[in-house]
Amino acid sequence: MKSVTDSFVSLGHWPSAGGFGFNTDILATNPINLSVVLGVLIYFGKGVLNDLLDNRKQRILSTIRNSEELRKGAIEQLEKARARLRKVETEANEYRVNGYSEIEREKENLINATCDSLERLENYKNETLLFEQQRAINQVRQRVFQQALQGALGTLNSCLNSELHFRTISANIGILGAMEE
């Protein structure tokens, strides 16, 4: 049974190809192929990728600004809560004899509610940032994959003409027929 390398060698000796042949030295051809593919990707995908990344950056910065505004609102609420706490503390001193334990419970509930609110806002900000980052990364991956695929298909279509395509198919059919015998 012939190996894959033998198939490439036999394809490289077409008398009607006019000097066309395959280089079977894998160590020499892979870096060349990779550099060509990377060059095409960088040349054609740089502008789109930069625009995509700039748009994502603006969205993320907008989300961060919104989160900062929410944080500032929470800080303002915290300051109001602290002012209210100070008021409650002064009232506690006045009503210590009549209802000290009730006022202490109110104070703790107020502090806990404010802390819970701040914690929820911080978690929401972090989740939003993580979600936006993941979405940006996924969109960039999709774009790069689509552009690479389009570039590869364009290269294949531009390199294969009908006659060469027909000869390649015929040679492969001959090789498969020889392998079955």
From TrEMBL:
Keywords: ATP synthesis, CF(0), Chloroplast, Coiled coil, Hydrogen ion transport, Ion transport, Membrane, Plastid, Thylakoid, Transmembrane, Transmembrane helix, Transport
Matches recorded under InterPro entries: ATP_synth_b/b'su_bac/chlpt
Membrane topology annotation: Single-pass membrane protein
Keyword Cytoplasm found: no
GO MF terms held by the record: proton-transporting ATP synthase activity, rotational mechanism
Gene Ontology annotations for the cellular component aspect, listed alphabetically: chloroplast thylakoid membrane; proton-transporting ATP synthase complex
Coiled-coil annotated residue ranges, if any: 64-98
Subcellular location(s) of the protein: Membrane; Plastid, Chloroplast thylakoid membrane
Residues that span the membrane, as ranges: 32-49
Chief localisation class: membrane
Function of the molecule: F(1)F(0) ATP synthase produces ATP from ADP in the presence of a proton or sodium gradient. F-type ATPases consist of two structural domains, F(1) containing the extramembraneous catalytic core and F(0) containing the membrane proton channel, linked together by a central stalk and a peripheral stalk. During catalysis, ATP synthesis in the catalytic domain of F(1) is coupled via a rotary mechanism of the central stalk subunits to proton translocation. Component of the F(0) channel, it forms part of the peripheral stalk, linking F(1) to F(0).
Family to which the UniProt record says this protein belongs: Belongs to the ATPase B chain family.
Extra facts: In plastids the F-type ATPase is also known as CF(1)CF(0).
Subunit structure: F-type ATPases have 2 components, F(1) - the catalytic core - and F(0) - the membrane proton channel. F(1) has five subunits: alpha(3), beta(3), gamma(1), delta(1), epsilon(1). F(0) has four main subunits: a(1), b(1), b'(1) and c(10-14). The alpha and beta chains form an alternating ring which encloses part of the gamma chain. F(1) is attached to F(0) by a central stalk formed by the gamma and epsilon chains, while a peripheral stalk is formed by the delta, b and b' chains.
PANTHER family: ATP SYNTHASE SUBUNIT B, CHLOROPLASTIC
Name of the protein this chain belongs to: ATP synthase subunit b, chloroplastic
Source species of the chain: Carlephyton glaucophyllum
Gene this chain is encoded by: atpF
